Amino acid sequence: MPAVTETIDTVQSLTQSGYKWGFETDIEMDIAPKGLTTDTVRMISAKKGEPEWLLEWRLAAFAAWEAMVEPNWAKVGYPKIDYQDIHYYAAPKRPAPKSLDDVDPELLAMYEKLGIPLKERAVLAGVEGAGMEGVIGSGNPNIAIDAVFDSVSVATTFRDTLAKSGVIFCPISEAVREHPELVRKYLGTVVPVSDNYFAALNSAVFTDGSFVFIPKGVRCPMELSTYFRINAKNSGQFERTLIIADDGAHVSYLEGCTAPMRDENQLHAAVVELVALDDAQIKYSTVQNWYPGDANGRGGIYNFVTKRAACRGARSKVSWTQVETGSAITWKYPSCILQGEGSVGEFYSVAVTNNRQQADTGTKMIHIGKNTRSTIVSKGISAGRSDNTYRGLVRILPRASGARNHTQCDSLLIGDQCGAHTVPYIESRNPTAKVEHEATTSKIAEDQLFYCRSRGLSEEDAVGLIVNGFCKEVLKELPMEFAVEAQKLLAVSLEGSVG
Amino acid sequence: MLSVNNLAARIEEKEILRGLSLDLPAGQVHAIMGPNGSGKSTLGYVLAGHEGYEVTGGSVTFGDADLLAMEPEARAAAGLFLAFQAPLELPGVNNANFLRTALNAIRRAHGEAELDAVGFLRLARAEAKRLAMPDDMLKRNVNVGFSGGEKKRNEVLQMAILRPKLAVLDETDSGLDIDALRIVADGVNALRGPEFSALVITHHQRLLDHLVPDRVHVLSKGRIVRSGGPELARELEANGYAGVVADAA
Amino acid sequence: MNQSLRNGADAYLARYQGLRGRLPGDAAIRDAAAAAFSEGGLPSMRDEDWRYTSLRGLAETDFQEPLSAVSTAPILGEAIDAPRLVLVDGRYQPGLSTPPAGVTVTPFSENPYFGRLPDIKCPMAALNTMLAEDGVQLHVAAGVDAGTLVLLSLAPDGHRPIAFHPRHGIHLEAGAKLTVLEISRGQGAYLHNAVTEAVVASGAVLTHIRLQAEGPEAFHVNTTFAEVAERGTYDAFVLTLGARVARTEIHARLIGPHGMVHLNGAQLLGGQQHGDITTVVAHDAPNCGSRQTIKNVLSDRSRGVFQGRIEVARVAQKTDGYQMNQALLLSPHAEIDCKPQLEIYADDVKCSHGATVGELDAEQLFYLRSRGVPDAEARAILVRAFLAEAMDPIAHPGARGLLERAIEQWWEHRP
Fold it and tell me: For the purposes of burial, counting CB atoms within 10 Å of the CB of A69, is it exposed (0-12), middle (13-18) or buried (19 or more)?
């Protein structure tokens, strides 16, 4: 039965998997008919009032997509997706809000319920339980939020404050109108339209997403955050994010994602492009909590995402941190092209799969410039009947003298019905480069559990504690507000996996 | 406080405890001594509820409760504490966080309010200071990279914070120098009172010099073969187990 | 598919059609292999298992049948003092061989036994099944310690490019023991595409040491399927020195509890050589162990490849799997590609892999030189030290000495 007619409360009462974000919001929507042709692409472009160059760009992507085949190399299995059975455009009917006062109150209420109040005040504060060293100061960091609802940006907070320091943070559709020179200069330069099947699809039909530009020498005065929410039924979700950090600029960006619980699978194919120029630093953190489907693997999001950073400038640095607990299937490899001399790429990942979830995730570090460095820390936790794969590439090109990579890749199995897999590719063509890779697989030792329980912890708390310890190297990379949320998520995701 | 009656237990197919009986009244400290392989550590694990040991007979009453029917964490909540002979390492798990989680789980079980981070740290630091443990031991991961002596002291710190009714110390003295030994003994002595009992498993008299037991039991082949006052420990130290064990056999 | 690979595959298929009536053994097995080979063709870099190794050079060479008779006695080259079996151009030479006591030797041409392990999924093994003419089948009876045996494969002609596809079998019955030292040498352009099936019954120990010193224009493809029963041991070492393109592929499967597999090896490459070691260790039973240490020393424009997969099935609890792959790049134009993989379905296991890539440690080099060791010697010392971890488990003194001398020579004469 479709969840549309059910009230929030009944849906929640039916929830046994502990997915607390599974309610649906009743918003009047403007939805395009199902199907994908050049007309769909033109329609989306027209709805957005886009310039001719962008329509041409989309059409080129569509042509590329039509000529491509869906990739099948990942260790995931799912029924064939009917790309003609998807709505490619769904947007709240109200006209685009000019300020927070114009935002549909239903939407504000929904974000409030998700714990993301769209108000210009300190949000997401409160760090209770953040660990013992975590008795941190009471300074509430301000966070500017772009709320993206069904791939359409519905509200962006703190824009005026940001504008004062020259930071642009707005929906990408708005950036196309207001800052066409920037968008045109960078869009598709990190992930070309024909990069891969899902990126091509996204390029053809993306509806919105966030745009960030940090000018020369500016340290962004607050954390920037996009909160993605899928709501509409049978609609694909295709956001596009573009972040540019000019020379010496610094920014920390967070994204969070949730979706209603439905019996059907939904496709989410986003593209994120990051550009870091000389001495720029971008920290990109994700807590991915799309609906994972129920215990029998029914429903859930197909999360097929392309994320890539170009470290173009000397000494530039991009750090990806991800905590992946949601989605029925995750196919995602946030990558760094380390072109600038001395540039640095980092990837810190926790991927948890339970029940019937499948995750195939990792990173690519392409070392092109001299003295480039990369660090990969991946923690995979499999429980239930799930499969969890780390897939990563470290490539050292001949000119990357002095390049360094260190990879640590650990898997933890909970129960004997799940799988943990590690597939790293290491390619080096420079003798002065040093590459180190380590991978381990283990389970939670019975005596560790017993030790915790003999100190009074319940088995589930003990598992939570040990898993959090296992993930610590990654969790410490998250901004504090997210780290707390992520720790709780890990525990929720593994509920019912022991005993 | 603790009443062990004809307890039998095995690990895999091997019988270790074969009808062990023991009465430990509240407020007393008893020592368990015995040669290697006599079942001393097994007794500790069985009391704490290790699933690797199968109880094949007998009973254990703790207070009024049937101890063997309880989960390990319920035993801890009821006031049982086992200081492990080889404390486990928990990589990535912060020592203080671990202890606070344990303490609050036990407090919850007793219907007491949980301690917040600040309150807990105050308590933990004070106890650590009393045990001459550096503050940073609280910040480090549980037992990871600890020396043998530090691990043992960490067990005693846990005991001091969790305040059990019955502490089972499994060779907590092994690998300790004389100063550390005194610290451990002081840790236990500080808890002594009408409501606290301890079962001290040891090989050596020297811990018992600092931690004078009310009774000493000699364990051999899974059974208590002789019991006596503190002087029995000295006798064993002087003459070894051979005589005692042979007498019984 | 790449056109030259397709053409190459078609040439082999045409040859098979021509020879079909004359090849020994069960035609149905060969037809099935031919069908599989026809469908997949020669492996291309689009095949995940071959993504780092191109067979285009092989496809573009027009290899002929070996001549039916050996004209002159070939030079055997250095070996060790042990019974030996000699193959020339892939054909067993009883006149040159001294079969050992304790091992029953049957030429494949007399008793064409293809074995029972799956080969058809590996395209080069399928090619072998399709065209195999000869080889040796070794059998050691239960409880017999058959000592050491040298298996020498020579391709001495060097004047016309030939292809041969020997089919070997090594069957050790319960509690049997055997050490096989396999040496391959040759001259000129040729394809040596061997398949070996090793069956190690319960408690048996097979030590399988290989020295691959083919000629610099040769193509060497070697596929081994090993199956190890309860408490059996398959202990393999391969030293790759020769060939223009070499691929050593080992599939080892542990089917009984407490079995053990060692797959160690080293590749020392120079010039434009391409060396590929690919291993798959399948743990299909509980309490088994596997250990792999692979070292690559790459100079000039050479390219080393290591792919290693450890598979742990759900039943294989208490598996202890370890794999280490290390590469030294001695030149700015050398390349290493490495793909270690873990595929794990059991929860109570200890599996790890590691990989490192780098050059000789400048600090160590400096230290040695500051103590008066000349640069070249210091490098040689450090390279030997680098190889030691893989070499140390070789317990057979004769084989160890032979391999060490081969390494020494490689180092002195490396291009």
Answer: exposed
The yes-or-no reply on A/C contact (3 CB pairs or more, < 8 Å) is yes
Domain with B231 in it:
2-90+163-248
Contact between chains at A457 and B94 (C-beta distance less than 8 A):
no
Classify residue C250: in a domain, yes or no.
yes
Q: Do A455 and B158 touch (CB under 8 A)?
A: yes
* Structural domain count of chain B: 1
The answer to whether the beta carbons of residues C216 and C191 sit under 8 Å apart is no
Domain assignment present for residue B144? The answer is no
Assigned token pair, C234:
């398959």
Do A365 and A374 contact (CB within 8 A), yes or no? yes
How far A493 CA lies from chain C's nearest CA (Å)?
19
pLDDT of residue C242: 95
CB B120 within 8 A of CB B96: yes
**Is this prediction's ipTM beyond 0.95?**
no
Closest Cα partner for A228 from A217, A240, A219, A216? A240
Average pLDDT in the A413-436 region? 93
**DSSP conformational letter for A98:** S
> For the CA atoms of chain C, what is the radius of gyration?
21
Domain-located, residue B39: yes
In chain C, which residues have their Cβ closer than 8 Å to the Cβ of A433? 329, 357-358
> What domain range includes position C353?
3-67+81-361
d(CA C164, CA C90): 6
In a domain, C370, yes or no: no
Contacts with A476 from chain B: Cβ below 8 Å: none
Phi-psi region of B63 (alpha: psi -120 to 50; beta: other; left: phi over 0): left
Best CA proximity match to A382, nearest among A339, A423, A325? A325
Question: Is residue B155 situated within a structural domain?
Answer: no
Whether residue C396 is contained in a domain is answered as no
Q: Does A488 touch chain B (CB under 8 A)?
A: no
* Residues pairing with A318 in the sheet: A282, A345
Closest-approach residue (CA) in chain B for A465: B93
CB neighbour list of residue B58: distance below 8 Å, 6 or more residues apart: B4, B5, B6, B7, B8, B19, B20, B21
Contact B182, B209 (CB under 8 A): no
Segments in A377-479 forming alpha helices (H) = 446-454, 459-470, 472-475
Look at chain C and report how many structural domains it folds into.
Answer: 1
Give the separation between CA B234 and CA B240, rounded to whole angstroms: 10
How far does C326 lie from chain A, in Å, by closest CA? 9
State the nearest Cα–Cα gap between C48 and chain A, in angstroms: 9
Convert the pLDDT of each residue in A288-298 to its tens digit. 888 888 888 88
- The structure tokens 């929860």 sit at C347
The model's confidence at residue A118, banded by pLDDT at 50, 70 and 90, is: low
Say yes or no for a CB contact (<8 Å) between A433 and C48.
no
Token pair listed for A312: 């173009």
B168 reaches A (C-beta below 8 A): no
pLDDT in tens, B85-129: 888 887 777 788 888 888 888 888 889 998 888 889 999 999 888
Closest Cα of chain A to B209: distance in Å? Answer: 28
Q: What is d(CA A326, CA A292) in angstroms, rounded to the nearest whole number?
A: 5
**A:C CB pairs within 8 Å:** 113
Task: Tell me the one-letter amino acid at C125.
Answer: A
The answer to whether B6 and B58 are in contact (CB under 8 A) is yes
The domain that holds B176 is classified in CATH as 3.40.50.300
Name residues 404-423 of chain A within 8 A of C (Cβ). Answer: 411, 413-423
* Domain assignment of residue B122, yes or no: no
Contacts of C98 (CB under 8 A, 6+ apart): C83, C84
Within an 8 Å CB–CB cutoff, is residue A26 touching chain B? no
Q: Is residue C386 included in any domain, yes or no?
A: no
CA distance C290 to chain A (A): 14
Q: What does the pLDDT read at residue C204?
A: 98
